[in-house]
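dumping this here so i dont lose it again. seq + smiles for zinc ion
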Amino acid sequence: MQRYGRTRCNLSSWFQMAAQEEDRDGFKFRSGRLALDLPASLAGRLRQPRELLETPEDLGRWLIASGLTPVDPSPGRATLEQARQLREALYRLGMACVRQQPLEPGDMELVNHFAARSPPVPQLTPAGVRWEGTSAPALLSAIARDAVDLFGTPLAGFIRKCGNESCALMFLDQSRSKHRRWCSMAGCGNKAKVAEFRRRQADETPERSK
Ligand SMILES: [Zn+2]
């Protein structure tokens, strides 16, 4: 039994409230949604993919870093394999939303399979909300439920891919203007700014040397 928070009894809401830093324990949490952050655990997807969920211990660390649990739920090998399968389905579904393409039935089936499992349940206590049933499979169910809520509602229309061509990260554009371009202003946004500055300097230099 674990106590998470005082006021929120929706695990995804708690997740959003609990953790703010976009890079935590070597993992990126830049999207604003669990269902889009899990795909980021395969780093460098578009160039040199690097598996960040190499071992069950890595998955335990990711689940803690995600804010879903304060205690390592000690996932096994089978759960690690399932997490990777869920992750890849979430990536394809997210990109289908970005491209405004139909969702693959097989991917939806997989997400539904995980969403149908028992998620952690909130219990009312004098001290606030206490979450029970926070095994690793239950936490995967919470992620799948987040995916259903995201991909199955008008929110899907606000899923974007980072504007950096080589960056595969997706995010939910929750900005007021709905013009968010980067997975992170400090990461890809800054890189683009520096590149633009260098380009301008290079354009100006020949002029000066005339
Ligand atoms: Zn990016």
